[in-house]
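Each field is set out as follows.
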Amino acid sequence: MKTMTFIALAISLTFVQFVTAQETEQPQKVKETIALLNAEKEIIENEEKEALRVEIEAIMKRYEDGEITQDESIKLKQEAAERRALNIENRKTIIANKIALIERNGIANDTLKDNGYTLSIGLGTLDRDDNTRVFGIQYKNNNKVKDTTHHDVRTFSEFVLATSFMYSSVNDQSLSNSPYDASDSGSFELGISWNTRVFKNTNFLRFKYGLSFVWNTYSLDDNNYFVVDGNQNNIVEFSEDLDKSELRLTNLVVPLFFEFGPSKKTIENGVTSYNTLHKVKFGIGGYGGFNIGSMQKLKYKVDGDRVKTKEKRDFNTTDFVYGLSAYAGYGGFSLYAKYGLNDTFTDSTLQQNDFSIGLRIDF
């Protein structure tokens, strides 16, 4: 019992000493905090002046680049100066209100501010947007100036999807004498492209480049298929009735275009960009790449049973592919054409060049 009484007395004395110490330290903390808040007024002026300087530099750059007139630049600078002056006035008023609140009520929490940095000790997360409190300790830079620099977006990316009919000229014969079924032969392209504005102050000319996978499918007519004999390809008749006879070549290519056409200029949140949506466009250029695979697919019936075969091999195809291409369209849709300058096969007895025409979608 005496021991419990002694412990209770010791705890009471410790609590009284702690409260007394807090009451003694409170006036000193009030003075220090008020001094820091008064110093923050000067920091506020420096922050807003620096932000104004950055804004004016951005405005002058737009004027020098010809994006705005002299009268517009003067108006924008006046508006920026008025806005920053009002910011200084409002932020100083907030500081004055904090000082008045502390003088009247004392310090409500252990928050120390120095040169725009805040250190708070407590539980939980006070600021959901900032989320800088970890394990009850929050550290925040109040001096961070918002980036108001003007940005000019000159490059953007798009996905490319294209499909086309493909016509092949073999041994300089007319298309009507081609061994392929033109209605069932075609090309399919899937890739990504980048558009870069060529000139600084106009988007009329763009350089378009990218990387695409291209699948060329050749559908043979007259129950024929390919037979490889050493370095030579032969088109011969199959022993059964073929439902399908296709040779598919897979290429990895780099398309390169110069694109022409109007666009809409927009400036939002200090960012200049150009929009070609709902605008006419034309492109001319070419492509180059490599053949990375070839496969022949046959479908037929034997005694009523369906048979499907796939043969992957070289088929004497050209390793390096290249050609010319052009397109014309509106918005994200275009009609395009391309012509392969390389021979499809290395076999000198089967000289073949491909011409494709179809639909291209940039999205």
Q: What stands out?
A: The first helix runs from residue 2 to 64.
